[in-house]
Every structure is written in C-alpha cells, then in structure tokens.
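Let us work through a complete example step by step.
Step 1: write down the sequence.
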Amino acid sequence: MTDCYAVIGNPIGHTKSPLIHGLFAQATNQDMQYDAIEGPLDGFTPRMRAFIDAGGRGINITAPFKLEAFALADERSERAMLAGATNALKFDGSRIVAENFDGVGLVRDEVNLKLPMANKRVLLLGAELEDVTVDSFQTNSEGAMCERIHRAFEQGIDAVLINAGAWT
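Step 2: predict the structure and record it as tokens.
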C-alpha cells in the first residue's frame, strides 16, 4: 500500500519537494506518493481533515499555515512548543502530532560551517530558534523578503539566514 505524504502552502507552485521526496523514495525503495497542495487561505483545517481522511500519513507545512498547523495538533514536540509553530504534522491514528525542524537545520549549519552565532542578533527568514536572539520574518513575496533584508542591516542585525526549508 502506497504511503501518502504532501507539502501544503499558499502559494505552492514553486516547490521542488515532490521531486526531491520522490527521488529519495525511489532511491530507498519506499512505496510512497508525495504531493504539493495549494491550501485555501480560509480553509486550512478542513483541507487537512480531507487529507487525513484520504489516508495521508504526514504533511510538511510552509507559509502561511505554520501557526494554524500548530493549533490543529493534538500533541506538540518540544521544538514545536519552543517555536510556537510547526513545519511538519504526523498523523498517528486519530492523533495529529506537530514537529518543528527549522531550528535543527540552523544548529547543524552553525556547527558544520563554524558560524559564530553566540550573542549575535540574527534575522532568520522562515523559522525560530531558542539559543540565539532571532527576529523572525515569514513571507512568500520575494520583494518583501528583499526589503526586510535591507532593513535588517539598517537595524544592526549581525546576520541574515534564510531557512531554505521554509521555501518549499
């Protein structure tokens, strides 16, 4: 039986997630389908319920639904609680479990790339992190993102990090 997964956002037409997850599934001999769902701005919860009822096992969440997904969950990981948002939901029987992987990638990059982040102000586009003073900004507009980056440097922000996972 094919496992069904997806990413939901609005807009979502730019995503490469189905291709990436499809190639990974093929390389690891997993029987799975991974789709992109353009979620209705005024109907996230009913769309999630329909995905679950159709057999969905889990879903990645991108803008603008990270807060709604967090609220929908029955159970939240510590990382999701710290962020106050989720970028992944797992459907475990009748329970919806929220997770947030945004900060994990940043920490891995900080360690692997030896980025000096302690005591720095960082503008992180698309995520939250507890160990660094973070000004978070979420948008799907390239113009708004560029404008926020310019404003960050005027404000004395030490670094701007774009969470690529948030741009699925």
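Step 3: interpret the result. The CA atoms of residues 92 and 134 lie 32 Å apart.
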